[in-house]
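[step 3/7] fold_predict: job queued, chain A
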Amino acid sequence: MAQIKVFYEPETELLSVFWQVPRRNQIGTELGDGVILIKDGVSGEPIGLEVLSYRPGDDRFDAVSVELGQMSSMQPTS
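[step 4/7] structure written:
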């Protein structure tokens, strides 16, 4: 079973979410609006993300939704 680790540092207003173990050789790619995708530096596989200037109730996010299931069962919406 995969574990998701969420870290919040109120002093630096940094929210970090990892679905894999952080790597020494990880790299970040800014996606915009202070969201950074963290990837393995060798394979390029996404392993987590960071949200800069985050505070609880941040209006950049209306809600966080977690859905379990297979991606192949998802149907595109029109």
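[step 5/7] annotate
The two ends are 33 Å apart (CA to CA).
The beta strands are 5-9, 14-18, 27-32, 35-39, 46-51.
exit 0
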